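hiii, so i know i said id send this last week but things got crazy w the move. better late than never?? heres the sequnce for the chain we talked about at the cafe, plus the structure i predicted for it. fair warning i was half asleep when i ran it
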Amino acid sequence: MELEGYYADAAVTVGVPPISDEARRLIECVEAAFQRAAKVARAGERLSHVGGTVEAEVMRRGFKVLRDLCGHGIGRSIHEEPSVVNHYQPLDRTRLTSGLVIALEPIVSVSANRTRSASDGWTITSLDGSLTAHYEHTLVITKGHPLLLTAA
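okay and structure toks below
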């Protein structure tokens, strides 16, 4: 979405009934990972802590983070710095700053942590073809809870 030269980004995986119990749990997992990470996404917090929070929730539920895909800064263009990875990177010392706008987007898989691209140049799947789910919203970082821009 673009308005007056500024962008926002959002995506959610929706199960169309009938869905398997595994698919339902995967969708619940990716949303829970987003919600937990959003709670720690505050000014002064390390970006690596946000990614580690996503990864911990996903692993706790028995699924995998797709490490090839990540969230991003967003503003005058759709993809800006910083990259917002969904796993812990201990060497990343980047801190979130007040007013930074990011697209936080956990993308998870039943059993793979890598992706493969199709020959059409657009389609991406988990490396092993297992089910995946995605949950993304645009946030403004503050000293308190972030402002959620793209969800009702």
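btw The CA atoms of residues 39 and 145 lie 6 Å apart. thought thatd interest u
miss u guys!!
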